[in-house]
């Protein structure tokens, strides 16, 4: 790619001056041709012809300067289009008016026919526009000579038009578009680059069979999840392989080509609309600051580091207890951001000595606390580890942030902290309360961001399902009706960064997760996308809810008032009140039980600490199953 850009940079000026020379010749021909037409394509009186020749240099200079200033030489003939024609027309009008005005001032238009300016403009339109569009037609003559496998395109909008143009132009891709289907009734019956729009998308399987197409391309970049799911189901019913354009950003980047097509991923079906972040606001809040990310090698932590690195922090501190994860994220960031001031720290947030030393030396302005244990069934039998890491690890880092004057401490929480029915959720709720109470007595702004599952994170359901499908199944789902919220990792991290600059202190931010998704549907779609059939090639087995698992998750408590923020995808709540004395007393009890390694009493003490009146995890699972 770099070599291509270098060659383009060298050759572009030569091509531009050739175009300028062409246009100067066209100006001269148009001006002299206007005299010839004015006198009925016959003899031009000598006095008029001599005056026309004498004024020709003025016309060349004036119109040449106008054409240059109006950007006629910024475009390429190869991609001449209607906007280019409009630009040419405007430049010709401006150049003609300017020429007439200057000649009037200098010569009073003596022996200059007034109609010559109109004729000059008409000839210039032909001489400037004609060659440009002929050149494009000559280059695109292969558009109507494509060959290869038959392709049906779903979507006759802008993306579909750009895709079919690329398919027709590039004979090496091996696909020949034969028809469009589109849900806009006004497009049916029309043609785009000679390819007809034959039916609505609902007829896709029938059209694919009638035209005997080999593949279907989905070129609908702004579809909602329900529409995308419908298109995918129609493609599956057609029995043809199908591919999808990667998204709206490809249109912005001008990358809608056949080589950008990819297989449909589960993320395309889950209803995540593109999230627009207030990048200037985020850059102002993060750029030039020292930022610490705990759990920097995890799914959320590593993506946070990538997005922070792009914002130009003064220093980025990576705190991670896994040597391998820390190695990976450090290697990636040093490769992609060689000038970034980076400090990898191998250690645990529970290590008070390490945490105090790092924060005392580095004085981070912002801390993103992503370090946590999160695997619900595993932590049901590991309550002590969960409390030590998720509760007391948060306390250690938060207290050090307060002591060393950190500006912002942002805790990354989970929907499982709402009405928790499991150890993991209860520890995260305790961490939320801890941060809210710290905020009341600290100069540091303590914030919390709460969201649901992220697609593809370590230990999440999608990698598990993919591994089960790859091994031939069965795919195990805990319950037919179980649902979860899902969000992509980059989207979640972008909204976390947005929340860090919105927060005033003490708030709990709740990210808009869209609609919950049934896990059984997720399993079915992953099987279909792998080219298999659910229930035939790959079985789906319902195994029953696991310890601590709920049928559905909640993002906020019933008594939490959700308020709008400056960002439409972020809501905020002041959180529910917790008795500070009871909470501190509960923390001390938890500390004592951890020291005694008393797992039996720990779960009950944890519920008492956070004021949770939920049934035990086993009872919760039983009630959910019976429902």
* Physical arrangement of strands within the biggest beta sheet: 9-8-7-10-11-12-17-21-20
Q: Indicate the overall shape.
A: elongated
Given helix and strand content, the structural type is: alpha/beta
Q: Note the gap between the termini.
A: 58 Å
Compute the gyration radius: what is it?
Answer: 33 Å
Nearest-integer average pLDDT: 80
**Strand tally:** 21
- Main beta-sheet strand count, sense and barrel state: 9 strands, mixed
| Helix share bin | 40-55%
Count of helical stretches: 21
Residue runs with pLDDT of under 50 for 5 or more positions:
1-14, 76-80, 248-258, 613-627
Residues in β-strands, percent: 5-15%
Description:
The chain is an alpha/beta fold. The chain contains 21 helices and 21 strands. The radius of gyration is 33 Å and the shape is elongated. Residues 1-14, 76-80, 248-258 and 613-627 have low confidence and may be disordered.
Features:
alpha/beta; nine-stranded mixed β-sheet; six-stranded mixed β-sheet; 21 helices
Entry summary:
This protein is α/β, with parallel strands linked by helices.
